[in-house]
Amino acid sequence: MILYSSNHSLQHKRRYCCGLREARKYLKLRKVKCVIIPPNIDKIVSKGGLYDCVHDIVNLSTEQNVPIFYGLNKTRISKILARPKSTITSAVSVISYDGAEALWSEVVHNAT
Q1: Alpha-carbon distance 17 to 101, whole Å?
Q2: pLDDT, tens digit, for every residue of 68-80?
Q3: Phi, psi dihedral angles at 67 (to 5 degrees)
Q4: Which of 23, 24, 69, 90 is least enclosed by beta carbons within 10 angstroms?
Q5: Helices (H) and strands (E) in the chain — how many of each?
């Protein structure tokens, strides 16, 4: 007996991405459902620095009506995501919340 399956059902869907560049990339692709930014990002005002990147993310998310949550700090976010100790996460963007719709609606309801 031979079983056939489509590749679409076997593909892994990405649930979130970490980092400012990744968040900006997926916001430009209009795939982000929410963005989590820690309030303790270093203020680097040079051209193309972190400050510009954060402003791009905030502007893109307000244009697309994507909720932004400011909370925790960079190391706490890294610990929650079980990332190695040496990495520090500057932003997290949620791409898919499949399987957690009830929790998602509760978070959005409490945030507004």
Answers
A1: 19
A2: 998 888 888 888 8
A3: -70, 140
A4: 69
A5: 5, 4
